[in-house]
Amino acid sequence: MALLDVNNLSISFGGLRAVDDFNISIEKGELYGLIGPNGAGKTTVFNLLTGVYKPNEGIIRLDGEDITRKSTIEINHCGIARTFQNIRLFKQMPVIDNVKVGLAERYKYSALEGILHLGKYKKVEKEMDEEAMRLLKVFDLDKERDTLASNLPYGKQRKLEIARAMATNPKLLLLDEPAAGMNPNETGELMDTIALVRKEFGMTILLIEHDMKLVSGICEKLTVLNFGRVLCQGETKEVLTNPEVIKAYLGE
Amino acid sequence: MKIDKKTKSNLITYGIVVAAFVLFTALASTGNLSSHMKGLLIPMTYYAVIAVALNLCVGILGELSIGHCGFMCIGAFTSAFFSKATAEILPSGIRFFLAFLIGIAFAALFGFLIGIPVLRLKGDYLAIVTLAFGEIIKNIINAFYIGIDKSGIHFSLKNAMELGLDEGGEVIVNGAMGITGTPHDSTFTIGIVVLLISLFVVLNLINSRDGRAIMAIRDNYIAAESTGINVTGYKMMAFTISAAIAGAAGVLFSHNITTLTATSQYFGYNASIMILVYVVLGGIGNIRGSVIAACILYLLPELLRGFSNYRMLIYSIVLIVMMIVNWSPKIIEWRKRTLGRFGFKKNSGKEIA
Ligand SMILES: Nc1ncnc2c1ncn2[C@@H]1O[C@H](COP(=O)(O)OP(=O)(O)OP(=O)(O)O)[C@@H](O)[C@H]1O
Ligand SMILES: [Mg+2]
Question: Are B194 and B49 in contact (CB under 8 A)?
Answer without folding.
Answer: yes
